[in-house]
Amino acid sequence: MAELRNIADSSETGQIVLIEDSTEASGRLLLQYCAHASSARSAHLHVASHDLPPQAWRKQLPSTNTARLHVYDGYSDPLGWTSRQPLCCADGLEGTVLRCDSASELETTLLSSIEPCSGRSVVVIDSLSALLRYHSVAWCCQLLKKLARLEQPSAGGDAGANGGVRVLVLVHSDLHSDTTMALLHHVANTIVSLTEAPSSTGQQVKKFSARIAAQDTALMCELLHRRTSGKITKETSLVAVSASTFQLHSAVFSAEEELQALQASSSSAPDPTANLTFNLRLTNQEKEARSNVVLPYTQVRSKRDRSVTAGPASGQLSAAGGGQIFYQPDDADDFDEEDPDDDLDI
To answer: Over the stretch 283-311, which tens digit does the pLDDT of each residue have?
Structure first.
Protein backbone atom coordinates (compact mmCIF):
# COMPACT_ATOMS: atom_id res chain seq x y z
CA MET A 1 0.00 0.00 0.00
CA ALA A 2 2.78 2.43 0.95
CA GLU A 3 4.72 1.72 -2.25
CA LEU A 4 1.85 2.63 -4.56
CA ARG A 5 1.06 5.81 -2.61
CA ASN A 6 4.72 6.83 -2.55
CA ILE A 7 5.01 6.43 -6.31
CA ALA A 8 1.76 8.29 -6.96
CA ASP A 9 2.81 11.17 -4.70
CA SER A 10 6.48 11.07 -5.66
CA SER A 11 8.31 14.10 -7.02
CA GLU A 12 11.20 12.03 -8.39
CA THR A 13 12.22 13.26 -11.83
CA GLY A 14 13.39 11.36 -14.87
CA GLN A 15 10.82 8.63 -14.27
CA ILE A 16 8.31 7.10 -16.70
CA VAL A 17 5.19 5.79 -14.96
CA LEU A 18 3.09 3.54 -17.20
CA ILE A 19 -0.53 2.98 -16.13
CA GLU A 20 -2.19 0.09 -17.97
CA ASP A 21 -5.96 -0.22 -17.99
CA SER A 22 -8.67 -1.92 -20.03
CA THR A 23 -12.35 -1.61 -20.80
CA GLU A 24 -13.26 -3.40 -17.56
CA ALA A 25 -10.84 -1.44 -15.36
CA SER A 26 -10.27 2.24 -16.20
CA GLY A 27 -7.06 3.88 -15.01
CA ARG A 28 -7.95 7.49 -15.80
CA LEU A 29 -8.88 8.31 -12.20
CA LEU A 30 -5.50 7.05 -10.99
CA LEU A 31 -3.80 9.13 -13.70
CA GLN A 32 -5.76 12.21 -12.65
CA TYR A 33 -4.90 11.56 -9.00
CA CYS A 34 -1.18 11.51 -9.84
CA ALA A 35 -1.57 14.72 -11.86
CA HIS A 36 -3.52 16.35 -9.02
CA ALA A 37 -0.80 15.40 -6.52
CA SER A 38 1.88 16.85 -8.81
CA SER A 39 0.04 20.14 -9.22
CA ALA A 40 -0.32 20.40 -5.45
CA ARG A 41 3.50 20.40 -5.16
CA SER A 42 3.79 23.52 -7.38
CA ALA A 43 4.97 21.60 -10.42
CA HIS A 44 4.32 22.64 -14.00
CA LEU A 45 1.72 20.31 -15.44
CA HIS A 46 1.81 19.55 -19.16
CA VAL A 47 -1.24 17.53 -20.23
CA ALA A 48 -1.37 15.99 -23.72
CA SER A 49 -5.08 15.27 -24.02
CA HIS A 50 -6.03 12.85 -26.79
CA ASP A 51 -8.92 10.87 -25.30
CA LEU A 52 -10.75 13.79 -23.63
CA PRO A 53 -11.35 17.43 -24.62
CA PRO A 54 -9.19 19.99 -22.79
CA GLN A 55 -12.25 21.25 -20.89
CA ALA A 56 -12.54 17.92 -19.11
CA TRP A 57 -8.99 18.08 -17.78
CA ARG A 58 -9.41 21.69 -16.69
CA LYS A 59 -12.51 20.75 -14.71
CA GLN A 60 -10.80 17.77 -13.12
CA LEU A 61 -7.96 19.94 -11.79
CA PRO A 62 -9.73 22.92 -10.20
CA SER A 63 -7.04 23.68 -7.65
CA THR A 64 -4.21 23.83 -10.20
CA ASN A 65 -2.48 27.14 -10.57
CA THR A 66 -3.48 28.30 -14.06
CA ALA A 67 -0.02 29.71 -14.71
CA ARG A 68 1.45 26.22 -14.28
CA LEU A 69 -1.16 24.38 -16.38
CA HIS A 70 -0.39 23.65 -20.04
CA VAL A 71 -2.91 21.63 -22.04
CA TYR A 72 -2.11 20.31 -25.52
CA ASP A 73 -5.26 19.56 -27.45
CA GLY A 74 -4.89 16.44 -29.53
CA TYR A 75 -8.56 15.54 -29.21
CA SER A 76 -10.42 18.19 -31.25
CA ASP A 77 -8.54 17.70 -34.51
CA PRO A 78 -5.86 15.00 -34.14
CA LEU A 79 -4.87 15.01 -37.83
CA GLY A 80 -5.37 18.71 -38.61
CA TRP A 81 -8.20 18.25 -41.07
CA THR A 82 -10.59 21.02 -39.99
CA SER A 83 -8.83 24.01 -38.51
CA ARG A 84 -5.39 25.02 -37.34
CA GLN A 85 -6.50 27.99 -35.24
CA PRO A 86 -5.10 27.70 -31.68
CA LEU A 87 -7.44 27.49 -28.76
CA CYS A 88 -7.69 30.44 -26.42
CA CYS A 89 -9.35 31.41 -23.18
CA ALA A 90 -12.59 32.12 -25.02
CA ASP A 91 -13.20 28.38 -24.99
CA GLY A 92 -13.80 28.57 -21.26
CA LEU A 93 -10.26 27.45 -20.40
CA GLU A 94 -7.63 29.09 -18.30
CA GLY A 95 -3.90 28.67 -18.67
CA THR A 96 -1.94 27.77 -21.76
CA VAL A 97 -3.87 25.71 -24.31
CA LEU A 98 -2.25 24.72 -27.61
CA ARG A 99 -3.68 22.70 -30.45
CA CYS A 100 -1.51 19.81 -31.66
CA ASP A 101 -2.62 18.50 -35.03
CA SER A 102 -0.05 15.71 -35.29
CA ALA A 103 2.22 13.65 -33.12
CA SER A 104 5.35 15.29 -34.52
CA GLU A 105 3.86 18.70 -33.70
CA LEU A 106 3.11 17.43 -30.19
CA GLU A 107 6.74 16.45 -29.71
CA THR A 108 8.04 19.82 -30.88
CA THR A 109 5.51 21.75 -28.80
CA LEU A 110 6.15 19.74 -25.66
CA LEU A 111 9.93 20.05 -25.84
CA SER A 112 9.81 23.78 -26.57
CA SER A 113 7.29 24.44 -23.77
CA ILE A 114 9.00 22.41 -21.06
CA GLU A 115 12.55 23.71 -21.45
CA PRO A 116 11.90 27.34 -20.35
CA CYS A 117 9.80 26.26 -17.34
CA SER A 118 11.70 26.76 -14.10
CA GLY A 119 11.15 24.16 -11.40
CA ARG A 120 9.75 20.66 -11.71
CA SER A 121 7.59 19.61 -14.65
CA VAL A 122 5.26 16.67 -15.04
CA VAL A 123 4.02 15.46 -18.43
CA VAL A 124 0.68 13.63 -18.56
CA ILE A 125 -0.19 11.70 -21.75
CA ASP A 126 -3.85 10.71 -21.99
CA SER A 127 -3.52 8.39 -23.70
CA LEU A 128 -0.59 6.82 -25.51
CA SER A 129 -2.97 4.49 -27.35
CA ALA A 130 -4.16 7.44 -29.44
CA LEU A 131 -0.59 8.08 -30.61
CA LEU A 132 0.00 4.40 -31.30
CA ARG A 133 -2.84 4.45 -33.83
CA TYR A 134 -0.82 6.66 -36.20
CA HIS A 135 2.80 6.09 -35.13
CA SER A 136 5.03 3.13 -34.39
CA VAL A 137 5.78 1.94 -30.90
CA ALA A 138 9.47 2.76 -31.48
CA TRP A 139 8.60 6.42 -32.11
CA CYS A 140 6.48 6.53 -28.94
CA CYS A 141 9.25 4.97 -26.85
CA GLN A 142 11.74 7.52 -28.17
CA LEU A 143 9.35 10.35 -27.29
CA LEU A 144 8.99 9.08 -23.71
CA LYS A 145 12.75 8.80 -23.32
CA LYS A 146 13.32 12.31 -24.71
CA LEU A 147 10.84 13.78 -22.25
CA ALA A 148 12.26 11.88 -19.27
CA ARG A 149 15.84 12.94 -20.04
CA LEU A 150 14.97 16.58 -20.65
CA GLU A 151 16.88 18.77 -18.18
CA GLN A 152 15.23 21.79 -16.62
CA PRO A 153 16.58 24.86 -14.88
CA SER A 154 15.82 25.37 -11.23
CA ALA A 155 14.06 28.39 -9.82
CA GLY A 156 17.49 30.04 -9.42
CA GLY A 157 18.36 29.49 -13.07
CA ASP A 158 20.80 26.57 -12.66
CA ALA A 159 20.46 24.37 -15.75
CA GLY A 160 19.89 20.72 -15.04
CA ALA A 161 19.45 21.27 -11.29
CA ASN A 162 16.06 19.56 -11.30
CA GLY A 163 17.11 16.61 -13.43
CA GLY A 164 14.66 15.15 -15.91
CA VAL A 165 10.90 15.33 -16.31
CA ARG A 166 8.40 13.00 -14.68
CA VAL A 167 6.20 11.38 -17.32
CA LEU A 168 2.78 9.85 -16.51
CA VAL A 169 1.41 7.71 -19.32
CA LEU A 170 -1.97 6.01 -19.68
CA VAL A 171 -2.22 3.15 -22.17
CA HIS A 172 -5.14 0.85 -22.95
CA SER A 173 -3.44 -2.55 -22.88
CA ASP A 174 -6.36 -4.44 -24.41
CA LEU A 175 -5.93 -2.49 -27.67
CA HIS A 176 -2.32 -3.50 -28.30
CA SER A 177 -0.34 -6.66 -28.88
CA ASP A 178 1.97 -8.32 -26.37
CA THR A 179 5.00 -7.16 -28.37
CA THR A 180 3.93 -3.52 -28.13
CA MET A 181 3.33 -3.78 -24.40
CA ALA A 182 6.68 -5.51 -23.88
CA LEU A 183 8.51 -2.61 -25.56
CA LEU A 184 6.66 -0.08 -23.40
CA HIS A 185 7.53 -2.11 -20.30
CA HIS A 186 11.19 -1.94 -21.31
CA VAL A 187 11.36 1.87 -21.26
CA ALA A 188 9.12 2.42 -18.22
CA ASN A 189 10.50 2.70 -14.70
CA THR A 190 7.17 1.97 -13.05
CA ILE A 191 4.41 -0.26 -14.40
CA VAL A 192 0.95 -0.11 -12.82
CA SER A 193 -1.41 -2.76 -14.24
CA LEU A 194 -5.08 -2.38 -13.34
CA THR A 195 -7.58 -5.24 -13.66
CA GLU A 196 -10.97 -6.10 -12.26
CA ALA A 197 -11.05 -6.97 -8.58
CA PRO A 198 -11.76 -10.63 -7.80
CA SER A 199 -15.21 -11.82 -6.86
CA SER A 200 -16.85 -10.00 -3.98
CA THR A 201 -17.06 -13.30 -2.10
CA GLY A 202 -13.43 -12.82 -1.04
CA GLN A 203 -12.95 -11.54 2.50
CA GLN A 204 -10.30 -8.98 1.55
CA VAL A 205 -12.48 -7.48 -1.18
CA LYS A 206 -15.43 -7.26 1.24
CA LYS A 207 -13.34 -5.46 3.86
CA PHE A 208 -11.91 -3.06 1.28
CA SER A 209 -15.30 -2.33 -0.30
CA ALA A 210 -16.64 -1.41 3.13
CA ARG A 211 -13.96 1.29 3.45
CA ILE A 212 -14.73 3.10 0.19
CA ALA A 213 -17.81 4.91 -1.06
CA ALA A 214 -20.53 3.01 -2.86
CA GLN A 215 -19.92 4.84 -6.15
CA ASP A 216 -16.16 4.08 -6.12
CA THR A 217 -14.89 0.96 -7.86
CA ALA A 218 -12.30 -1.34 -6.34
CA LEU A 219 -9.62 -2.51 -8.78
CA MET A 220 -6.75 -4.97 -8.59
CA CYS A 221 -3.39 -3.25 -8.99
CA GLU A 222 -0.11 -5.01 -9.81
CA LEU A 223 2.86 -2.70 -9.33
CA LEU A 224 6.42 -3.15 -10.60
CA HIS A 225 8.89 -0.40 -9.75
CA ARG A 226 12.53 -0.26 -10.84
CA ARG A 227 14.59 1.96 -8.59
CA THR A 228 17.66 3.86 -9.76
CA SER A 229 19.77 1.58 -7.56
CA GLY A 230 18.62 -1.44 -9.57
CA LYS A 231 16.28 -2.85 -6.93
CA ILE A 232 12.93 -4.08 -8.23
CA THR A 233 9.82 -3.81 -6.07
CA LYS A 234 6.61 -5.76 -6.74
CA GLU A 235 3.30 -5.25 -4.98
CA THR A 236 -0.27 -6.45 -5.44
CA SER A 237 -3.01 -4.36 -3.88
CA LEU A 238 -6.62 -3.26 -4.10
CA VAL A 239 -7.05 0.39 -5.10
CA ALA A 240 -9.88 2.87 -5.53
CA VAL A 241 -9.76 6.58 -6.33
CA SER A 242 -12.63 8.84 -5.31
CA ALA A 243 -13.81 10.86 -8.30
CA SER A 244 -15.12 13.68 -6.11
CA THR A 245 -12.32 14.14 -3.57
CA PHE A 246 -9.33 12.60 -5.41
CA GLN A 247 -8.47 10.42 -2.44
CA LEU A 248 -6.53 7.23 -3.00
CA HIS A 249 -7.62 4.18 -1.05
CA SER A 250 -5.41 1.10 -1.21
CA ALA A 251 -4.81 -2.12 0.68
CA VAL A 252 -2.27 -4.89 0.13
CA PHE A 253 -3.84 -7.99 -1.40
CA SER A 254 -2.57 -11.41 -0.35
CA ALA A 255 -3.47 -14.31 -2.62
CA GLU A 256 -2.48 -16.87 0.03
CA GLU A 257 -4.71 -15.27 2.64
CA GLU A 258 -7.59 -15.21 0.18
CA LEU A 259 -7.08 -18.91 -0.60
CA GLN A 260 -6.99 -19.85 3.08
CA ALA A 261 -10.21 -17.92 3.68
CA LEU A 262 -11.91 -19.71 0.80
CA GLN A 263 -10.75 -23.09 2.06
CA ALA A 264 -11.98 -22.33 5.58
CA SER A 265 -15.38 -21.25 4.28
CA SER A 266 -15.69 -24.38 2.14
CA SER A 267 -14.75 -26.68 5.05
CA SER A 268 -17.35 -25.09 7.31
CA ALA A 269 -20.09 -25.49 4.73
CA PRO A 270 -22.87 -28.01 5.59
CA ASP A 271 -22.50 -31.57 4.31
CA PRO A 272 -25.10 -32.22 1.58
CA THR A 273 -25.06 -35.98 2.33
CA ALA A 274 -25.81 -35.64 6.04
CA ASN A 275 -29.63 -35.88 6.04
CA LEU A 276 -30.29 -38.40 3.26
CA THR A 277 -32.77 -41.28 3.65
CA PHE A 278 -30.18 -43.73 2.35
CA ASN A 279 -26.55 -44.35 3.22
CA LEU A 280 -23.82 -43.44 0.71
CA ARG A 281 -20.95 -44.75 2.80
CA LEU A 282 -19.84 -48.26 3.82
CA THR A 283 -18.90 -49.48 7.26
CA ASN A 284 -15.72 -51.46 7.88
CA GLN A 285 -17.66 -54.74 7.98
CA GLU A 286 -19.36 -53.96 4.69
CA LYS A 287 -16.01 -53.13 3.10
CA GLU A 288 -14.55 -56.43 4.32
CA ALA A 289 -17.53 -58.42 3.03
CA ARG A 290 -17.23 -56.71 -0.33
CA SER A 291 -13.55 -57.62 -0.61
CA ASN A 292 -14.36 -61.31 0.07
CA VAL A 293 -16.87 -61.64 -2.75
CA VAL A 294 -15.65 -63.87 -5.60
CA LEU A 295 -16.32 -62.16 -8.88
CA PRO A 296 -17.88 -64.21 -11.72
CA TYR A 297 -15.64 -65.87 -14.35
CA THR A 298 -12.76 -65.82 -11.90
CA GLN A 299 -11.12 -69.00 -10.69
CA VAL A 300 -10.49 -69.56 -7.04
CA ARG A 301 -6.86 -69.00 -6.13
CA SER A 302 -6.44 -72.53 -4.81
CA LYS A 303 -7.41 -74.03 -8.17
CA ARG A 304 -5.35 -71.53 -10.12
CA ASP A 305 -2.22 -72.36 -8.17
CA ARG A 306 -2.32 -76.07 -9.15
CA SER A 307 0.81 -77.04 -10.98
CA VAL A 308 2.12 -79.97 -12.96
CA THR A 309 4.32 -81.96 -10.59
CA ALA A 310 5.83 -84.30 -13.15
CA GLY A 311 9.58 -83.96 -13.60
CA PRO A 312 11.65 -83.44 -16.73
CA ALA A 313 12.07 -87.18 -17.23
CA SER A 314 8.49 -87.55 -18.33
CA GLY A 315 8.89 -84.74 -20.84
CA GLN A 316 6.67 -82.36 -18.88
CA LEU A 317 7.79 -79.12 -17.29
CA SER A 318 6.66 -77.75 -13.98
CA ALA A 319 4.28 -74.90 -14.66
CA ALA A 320 3.24 -73.57 -11.29
CA GLY A 321 0.56 -71.00 -11.66
CA GLY A 322 0.32 -71.56 -15.43
CA GLY A 323 -2.85 -71.76 -17.52
CA GLN A 324 -4.31 -74.48 -19.79
CA ILE A 325 -6.32 -74.30 -22.99
CA PHE A 326 -9.21 -76.72 -23.47
CA TYR A 327 -10.68 -76.97 -26.95
CA GLN A 328 -13.61 -79.18 -27.93
CA PRO A 329 -14.29 -79.28 -31.67
CA ASP A 330 -17.80 -78.63 -32.83
CA ASP A 331 -19.66 -81.14 -34.98
CA ALA A 332 -20.25 -78.51 -37.63
CA ASP A 333 -16.59 -77.52 -37.92
CA ASP A 334 -15.35 -77.72 -41.55
CA PHE A 335 -11.90 -79.31 -41.74
CA ASP A 336 -9.91 -79.16 -44.97
CA GLU A 337 -7.83 -82.35 -45.14
CA GLU A 338 -5.94 -81.30 -48.27
CA ASP A 339 -2.43 -80.01 -47.89
CA PRO A 340 -2.33 -76.40 -49.07
CA ASP A 341 1.36 -76.82 -49.92
CA ASP A 342 0.97 -80.07 -51.88
CA ASP A 343 1.81 -78.41 -55.23
CA LEU A 344 5.14 -77.11 -53.94
CA ASP A 345 8.35 -79.04 -54.69
CA ILE A 346 10.03 -78.87 -51.33
So the answer is: 899 999 988 887 765 555 555 555 444 44
Q: In this structure, which amino acid lies at residue 246?
A: F
How many angstroms from the chain centroid is the CA of residue 166?
24
- CA within 13 Å, CB half, 4: 27
| Burial of 222 per CB tally in 10 Å (0-12, 13-18, 19+) | middle
Predicted confidence (pLDDT) at residue 158 exceeds the cutoff of 70: no
Partners of 249 in beta bridges? 240
List the 166-172 sheet strands across, edge first: 96-99, 69-73, 44-49, 121-126, 166-172, 16-21, 190-196, 219-226, 232-241, 248-252
Q: Note whether 58 and 135 are within 8 A (CB).
A: no
Q: How far is CA 114 from the centre of its chain?
A: 33
Q: CA-based Rg of the chain, rounded to a whole angstrom?
A: 38
What confidence tens digit (pLDDT) does each residue in 231-257 have? 899 988 888 988 777 788 888 887 666
User: Residue 95, Cβ neighbours under 10 Å: how many?
Assistant: 18
| Claim: this prediction has a pTM higher than 0.85 | no
